[in-house]
Amino acid sequence: MGIVNVTPDSFSDGGRSLGHDAALAHARRLIAEGADILDIGGESTRPGAEPVSESDEVARVAPLIAALRAESTIPISIDTMKPGVAAAACAVGATMWNDVTALTWSPESLETAAAIGCDVVLMHMRGEPRTMQAAPRYDDVVAEVTAYLSARVEAAMAAGVAGTSIWIDPGIGFGKTAEHSLALMRNLDGIVALGFPVLVGASRKSSIARIAGDTSTSDQRLGGSLAMALAAARAGAAAVRVHDVAETRQALAVAEAISQA
Ligand code: HH2
Hints:
Elements: E1 2-5, H1 20-32, E2 38-41, H2 54-71, E3 76-79, H3 83-91, E4 96-99, H4 109-116, E5 119-123, H5 141-158, E6 166-169, H6 178-186, H7 188-192, E7 199-200, H8 206-212, H9 222-234, E8 239-240, H10 245-260
Parallel strand pairs: 1-2, 2-3, 3-4, 4-5, 5-6, 7-8
This protein binds 6-hydroxymethylpterin-diphosphate.
6-hydroxymethylpterin-diphosphate (HH2) binds at residues 3, 5, 16, 41, 44-46, 79, 98, 100, 121, 123, 169, 171-172, 199, 201, 241.
């Protein structure tokens, strides 16, 4: 899953997010590099990021999704907490709603997901993005994340979301210390065993620098991101959400070839 962040101002967050034309060019590049899914986001979930209104978020993502849909059949995921944005995105061609709040952000999230009928990614997060990294605590992070994901799957299915449409994600870095993220990566097979496709998003996250014990900036974390992607794939994850599609594909292809040799 290749990441495409779109905001009106190309330089608003140090060039990590792109305006429409640059985002379209970036999406085309990720398709050419072999992405199987594109994840389009119009609001950053990084700690401290500014919230975006629903209408602004739709204005960012809908034209990009429509433009991509007109030229490609690649599955498109919309990365949003807002049911109104998910509905608007799916109306112009998105087929997956990637929700870092696991359909808890709004009372309408569950019924909207059922009504749209798209695939849904339910991700675990502790707290909310602005404050989630302030001393997160768990007694047993693996057990608590697994139980939470099970409960959200049940809530989604009770609301009418088809079980075959549900993906789950442990939410690396979302209200987790580096140790928590490591424990989840090490025990990912237990989450895979829940029986739903698992998505893992560790690409360029700050936990990589903390685990490696370095001071790398986000664009200096390709090595750690590849290590995370390989560990996720080995544990049976169905997809990895990444910035560097070509490099990740190459790493996965070589690891797969070694295991087949
Ligand atoms: N991480 C981010 C955003 N969306 N969705 C899922 N399912 N899993 C993740 O781990 C995940 C996600 C991180 O977002 P942000 O910090 O805004 O940066 P970027 O979008 O560049 O990764």
